[in-house]
Amino acid sequence: MAKQPKKSFQSSKLAKKQRQGLLTLLILVSLSKITWLWNQPNHLLLGSDGENYFSGLEGLVKDGLFSDAGNLHYWPSGYPILMWPFAELSTTYFPFFVGGLQILFYSFATYYFAIQLQSSNFGKIFWPAVLIITFNPMLALNASAIGYEVNAAASFLIALGAFLKFSNRQDKSLKNPEIWYAALALALATFMQPRISVLAFTFFLIWALASFKRHIALLMIISTSAAVALGPLFMIGRNVVANDFVAISTNLGTTMNIGAGPQSTGGYTNQATGVPCTPIEGNAAAQDSHRVGCVLSWYKENPGLGVGLFLRKFTYHFSPWFGPLANGTTARSPWLDIHPFKSTVQSQEGFNMVYGNTGKLVSWGWLIGSFALMIWGFISLGRLKGQAQVLAALLLTPSLLNALSSLITIGDNRFRMPTMTLSILLQLFGAYALLSKKSFKRWASLDAKSSWPGLNWKKKAEIDNLLS
Fold it and tell me: How many CB atoms lie within 10 A of CB 278?
């Protein structure tokens, strides 16, 4: 018994050193990326939809919040609205301010998540998790580009960290601030990209059902969903005032049409002509809804072609960033500018290797292997109990739903980025389960509670404690 305090002191000392090392690492990485951004032409890195966001921003600067600029309703207006204050400060340097803030936000999310991971049952993977999140080239470099994707990935990281801290509490309650930290983070992500609201809802649904009895779980689901819905509702209200129609954005029909039809491959890089659709008169929202209806009718009338397109879109969603299987709108990504294979394909021999049978074999191996590692991570965590089982669901469900949401639009590997922090962590757990089976299984004894109270019907003699 006398050795216990010494062991506790040593653990505390190790945790302190890890935190100091983490903070030092993130400060150095952030400063390096900010310096790199400053040295870019015009201190700017454009993401895939950068010009569209700037076009919407011009409308806000010129006409105010209720500008009728086309790109403020064709695309969701949330991201341009968030850039607006910086544009008012400086029309020259605002892209640098935005990129720098996004770099700091990603580093903060990494720090917050890592500290909660350190205090959880999974502290052994503290450094591996920190390193893959910090140095994943697509996330790390795209954090400085104009675009919502990495901000959303950081928001999910904060929400996951909040869950880990919450699950270590003995006094679980709706009053716990971790729930609202997560709600705020995912509300921000949803404001930038409204389709993330479905992923956020399932995240809180799993959290609530795993933590509370039915009535309290329902209250948590309703309250967090209301917080997440504020952004989309705000955009609808803005469009009602500015354009006199009810819509979050008006590009869904066009995007769906690109990924449908007999000539479509399901991705962006094709000469698809879409589906037959008789033009109608009406405002942008009415026309968008009409195009959506045309695409859905085509899928209903052509189920065989539709299933084939769905499979291809699913594959494109998880496709590599470079090579014969790559399909998406990531051409501007800084990572692709320095990708090891970029110089290889400059020669005919290198091009034949990368885009020939060898490249196809490597690409399919990468795709199948990375997806299999995700599934194995889910299965391995799911076999454990308590926190591990819930964590498995929180990591996989948004990642899969994000992929499935692409099926009705287009297959684009860029759409994978908002949930990449979740998927690469799941892959890390999968790798750990394969390489260190005994150590992985020890986690099962750390937290054996897994009753999922929100899924259990209340017994007659049982009273819900709404304050708990």
Answer: 6
Distance separating alpha carbons of residues 67 and 65, to the nearest angstrom: 6
End-to-end alpha carbon distance in the chain: 35
Q: Do 111 and 26 touch, CB atoms closer than 8 A?
A: yes
Q: What is the pLDDT of residues 61-81, one digit of tens each?
A: 999 999 999 999 999 999 999
DSSP single-letter state for residue 57: H
pLDDT of residue 99: 97
Say yes or no to pLDDT of 207 above 50.
yes
DSSP H helical ranges for 64-211: 71-74, 78-89, 94-118, 126-135, 137-142, 149-167, 177-192, 196-211
Residue 459 has pLDDT above 80, yes or no: no
CA distances from 377 to 27, 131, 436, 437 (A): 30, 18, 13, 12
Distance, CA of 318 to CA of 80 (rounded, Å)? 28
- Alpha carbons 377 and 388: distance in angstroms, whole number: 11
Helix (H, G, I), strand (E, B) or coil at 86: helix
Task: Identify the burial level of 315 via C-beta atoms within 10 angstroms of its C-beta, where 0-12 means exposed, 13-18 middle and 19 or more buried.
Answer: buried
Q: Note the pLDDT tens digit of each residue in 335-372.
A: 998 888 888 898 999 999 999 999 999 999 999 999 99
Whether the pLDDT of residue 463 is over 80: the answer is: no
Neighbouring residues of 2: CB distance < 8 A, sequence distance ≥ 6: none
The residues with which 342 forms a beta bridge, in sequence order, are: none
> Which pLDDT score, from 0 to 100, does residue 258 have?
92
Ranking 82-91, 133-142, 291-300, 385-394 by mean pLDDT, the lowest is 385-394
C-alpha span between 64 and 459 (Å, rounded) = 56
Distance CA 144, CA 193 (A): 18
Please give the Cα distance from 27 to 23 (Å, whole number): 6
Distances (CA, A) of 449 to 164, 204, 384, 385, 442: 15, 19, 10, 6, 15
Closest Cα partner for 320 from 311, 330, 332?
A: 330
| Residue 9: strand, helix, or coil | helix
Contact (Cβ atoms closer than 8 angstroms) between residue 114 and residue 29: no
Q: What does the angle CA 464 – CA 466 – CA 468 come to, to the nearest 5 degrees?
A: 100
Query: What residue has token string 């997806």?
Result: 371
* Residue range 239-256, pLDDT digits in tens: 999 999 999 999 999 999
